[in-house]
């Protein structure tokens, strides 16, 4: 006997999943056209993040990192010889590390830019 619309089940039967509870693998973009509500309600105790606030925090962190970098360069003034292919340079050690970091950042930006172009092409194909 069942109680509260529960299905009877015996040890030798397996329950079948209810189709109404299944979520599609890929949501249909045309199904919901209304913007979604924020997950955190705005109340008197909640603070919202703004672009200006995030930019301000990023600038402060960047300025602190720049100060640390300048201190590192000033403390590493002994000269080192750098060789790149056929070129030879004599620069302070701190400047050499700075140049290596800049070269790494440029390579990373190049790879990221190529990936962004790939994603943009894929998005155009889908439209």
TrEMBL record:
Question: Polar residues bias: where?
Answer: 1-23
Annotated region (Disordered), positions in chain: 1-48
Pfam families from the UniProt entry: LapA_dom (PF06305)
Key words, A-Z? Cell membrane, Membrane, Transmembrane, Transmembrane helix
Q: Membrane-spanning residues where? A: 56-75, 95-117
Residues annotated as domain Lipopolysaccharide assembly protein A: 75-127
Q: Which InterPro entries match?
A: LapA_dom
This chain's protein is named Lipopolysaccharide assembly protein LapA domain-containing protein
């Amino acid at each position: 006997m069942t109680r509260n619309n529960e299905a009877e089940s015996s040890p030798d039967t397996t329950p079948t999943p209810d189709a109404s509870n299944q979520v599609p693998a890929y949501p249909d973009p045309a199904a919901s056209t209304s913007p979604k509500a924020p997950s955190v309600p705005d109340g008197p105790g909640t603070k919202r993040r703004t672009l200006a606030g995030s930019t301000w925090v990023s600038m402060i962190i960047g300025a602190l990192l720049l100060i640390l970098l300048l201190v590192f360069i000033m403390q590493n003034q002994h000269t080192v010889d750098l060789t790149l292919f056929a070129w030879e340079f004599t620069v302070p050690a701190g400047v050499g590390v700075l140049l290596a970091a800049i070269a790494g950042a440029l390579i990373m930006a190049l790879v990221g830019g190529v990936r962004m172009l790939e994603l943009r092409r894929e998005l155009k194909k889908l439209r």
